[in-house]
Amino acid sequence: MKDLAGKVAFITGGGSGVALGQAKAFAAQGMKIVIADIRRDHLDQALAYFRERNLPAHGIQLDITDRKAYAAAADEAEKTFGPVQLLCNTAGVSQFGPVQQATYDDWDWQMSVNLGGVINGIQTFVPRMLAHALGSHILITASMAGFLPLTLLAEMTNIGTLFAFVIVCAAVLVMRKTNPDANRPFRAPLVPLVPILGILTCLLLMFSLPAENWWRLIIWLLIGFVIYFAYGRKHSVMKHYLEHEISKHGISPGGSLATDVDRIDEGPPKP
Ligand SMILES: NC(=O)c1ccc[n+]([C@@H]2O[C@H](COP(=O)([O-])OP(=O)(O)OC[C@H]3O[C@@H](n4cnc5c(N)ncnc54)[C@H](O)[C@@H]3O)[C@@H](O)[C@H]2O)c1
Known about the structure:
Blueprint: E1 8-12, H1 17-28, E2 32-37, H2 40-52, E3 57-61, H3 67-81, E4 84-89, H4 104-132, E5 137-140, H5 150-178, H6 193-207, H7 211-235, H8 237-249, H9 257-265
Parallel strand pairs: 1-2, 1-4, 2-3, 4-5
Helix pairs in contact: 3-4, 5-6, 5-7
The structure holds nicotinamide-adenine-dinucleotide.
């Protein structure tokens, strides 16, 4: 599916988190958004975002484990916007805490939402998608914790986050030279001392991590570089937005970070 404009997306759990991010990104590409979420307060907050921007979005309070309600929600979505061509099975829950404290109820709840909810989505929408035959996609979101041990993920997150802080500190130093007139919504005190100390302390912590962590970081980085140079560099919405702002104002944009992120959410400016 390349041309998303005007098509309908049904996004479970779209009231918050990852699914709300998906809803914003698809709306920015011109899709009509149906958000299905169990929580009314999440729905209301999410819908306010779309209302403020005049983007077509419709909220349905739905527990994805309820099969009858799921079918009714699909009917409501079709009645509101027409046939659904993208189903995002994104609602997910987790019982945080030690596994030995989990009860049967905890396991049943997680299985019914994380697995049962996805099955219900597929059962509800696949026959409808085949019937309208407009070309459809189903997107299922899972956590890396489903594929890798949690301790390994934690180690990778540690080294990745520290490395990101090294880059941020270095960027503060470099951008003072390469883009001195940029409007800066935040101030870094005692430059260059604070960024240099930041780099050194992060590197110190990184070198205290086991060697295999470094290998994982390097391999992860290489994969990231391939994706970035083969796709991300050309297609980055943020890059197009910044290029537009710099060509218009001669400097990178000012304003609060939140405002800029919201403007980036809306996609590159139309010529
Ligand atoms: N947050 C992350 O960093 C991350 C990373 C990788 C994968 N994921 C996966 O993405 C999915 C969403 O995670 P998140 O962090 O955005 O969670 P979240 O808690 O922010 O959002 C989940 C949404 O689903 C809704 N929901 C919960 N149960 C529901 C049900 N029965 N029916 C309908 N809606 C229901 C909640 O109300 C909430 O709005 C999960 O499957 C998670 O494993 C998250």
